[in-house]
Amino acid sequence: MTSQSVMFKGGLPADCTCPICEQALRDPIKLNCDHHYCRQCFENENRTPGCAACQTIIQPELCQHDRAKQKQILALPVVCTFESSGCPWDGQLGTLHDHLSECTFKSSLKCEKCGRQFAKNDLEKHRAKCELNRAVCSFCNKTIRDSDRERHPKTCPQVIISCPFQCGLTDRPRLEIEAHCPSCPNVDNVCPFVPYGCTFAGGKESIQQHLSDEPVRHLMYLCDEITDLKGTYELMERDMGSFNDRQTRILSAAETCTEMFGPQLIWKIDKLQQRTNEAKSGADTTIFSVPFMSHRFGYKMMACACLFGDGSSAGKSISLYVLLLKGEFDPTLEWPFHRAIKISLLDQNPRPEDRVNITYVIDPRKLKANEKFLARPRGERNAAFGSQSFCSLAILQNYVKDDKIYVQIDVDRCETLPVQLKSRDAKERKQMLDAMRAKTPDVRLHQVRPVTSQSSSAELRV
């Protein structure tokens, strides 16, 4: 049973968590450094030779199954996997399997109207009184909730009623009666509490006497009206709460979609002139973006910029780079990093159809020489890689508006397929680049050269 199907009370203790899969230890193996792996993670052929927690070299002959740790894990307090469906059970992890085999909430079903989960035996009872049950008004044909059946006829514009001032106009839709009331000849000859249920009619003197004789009855009319208003308010409050919940879910889903399918970072660099002057003077040559994720549960990254240029490009071009940070999900990811990255300088032209972005494409390769850039970070961050000569400072001015520029980072969400490199003569290379430029005129294509101990590349930066 994986920790994904288990809900631990108070959370999963760190000493019971596998540093590789970050789940509860299953069949724990104690390493020679006293840390623990799941047996499956320990026996994985692709695991690193060093301990994921302390980097100590693992000596398999000194590793063994830890029965005491297994006993500790089975004693951890958990709740039923179907707690969200209403199951109140809690107990130890070792007894969870037996409980699930007989849990009545295991076969819980969802109400097709409100979406809430119920045990199979309780679903029919809920359906009968679900607050989202609907009915059709026989007067106006409007769809209303079951809970509004008593309240709706009091306001329905098509309900058949008579004039409350007892002028003889009867059996008319409420809409027609309401239009008639202001001009009704008896409007001044009835009790002012007629709209609330009183039926008294007479002259002005008799109406005054009527109000004096029966104050309690009229007070009860008002109390009934206030009770109706209170019920309406509670219904509106409940509807607002439901609306807020739905809005939160929709916004959360929209945010998730943005994380999954939108650019990973759009970096606004403001106060550009001031920052460029600081870079020029050497006070602050490099600025950094906020950290961002390549995808959900993916690589943690950061962008950086040298606004006055870096190295041989100083004073000539802006330099843009990305770098890998030490992330929470690094143990579950594939290393070295090999996702294609696009760095784009966004055109701020108010006419979208006239915008031409400058884009630099990075296609990392699984080369050991690039370990300090693309390997799993051992420290807080790796060295940066990208474009030392992204675009000239003169061209950059065409992309500045209100002393701001925008840099967009796109990281492929799928793995970059291995590419076999082969040498091409100058003519063949030119033909290939011309064809690719014709297809994507706003993309600048660069050949990413590997770094070796004998040579350095302008596209990689320590």
Description of the structure:
The protein is of the alpha+beta class and 462 residues long. It has four domains: 77 residues, Zinc/RING finger domain, C3HC4 (zinc finger) (Herpes Virus-1, 2-Layer Sandwich), CATH 3.30.40; 75 residues, Zinc/RING finger domain, C3HC4 (zinc finger) (Herpes Virus-1, 2-Layer Sandwich), CATH 3.30.40; 53 residues; 197 residues, Sandwich (Apoptosis, Tumor Necrosis Factor Receptor Associated Protein 2, Chain A), CATH 2.60.210. It has eleven helices and 23 strands. Strands 14, 15, 16, 17, 20 and 23 form a six-stranded antiparallel sheet that branches. The longest helix has 47 residues. It is flat. The protein starts with 6 loop residues before the first strand and ends with a strand. The C terminus is likely disordered. Keywords: Cytoplasm, Metal-binding, Receptor, Repeat, Zinc, Zinc-finger. InterPro entries: MATH/TRAF_dom, TNF_rcpt-assoc_TRAF_met, TRAF-like, TRAF1-6_MATH_dom, Znf_C3HC4_RING-type, Znf_RING, Znf_RING/FYVE/PHD, Znf_TRAF. GO terms for molecular function: signaling adaptor activity; zinc ion binding. One of its GO terms (cellular component) is cytoplasm. This is TNF Receptor Associated Factor (TRAF) homolog.
Topology:
Elements: E1 7-8, E2 29-30, E3 36-37, H1 39-42, E4 64-65, H2 67-74, E5 77-79, E6 90-92, H3 93-102, E7 109-110, E8 117-118, H4 120-129, E9 134-136, E10 143-145, E11 160-161, E12 172-173, H5 174-180, H6 204-213, H7 215-261, E13 265-269, H8 272-281, E14 287-288, E15 292-293, E16 300-306, E17 317-324, E18 341-345, E19 358-362, H9 371-374, E20 384-392, H10 393-396, E21 405-411, H11 426-439, E22 443-444, E23 460-461
Parallel strand pairs: 19-22
Antiparallel strand pairs: 1-5, 2-3, 2-4, 5-6, 7-8, 9-10, 11-12, 13-21, 14-16, 15-16, 16-17, 17-20, 18-19, 18-21, 20-23
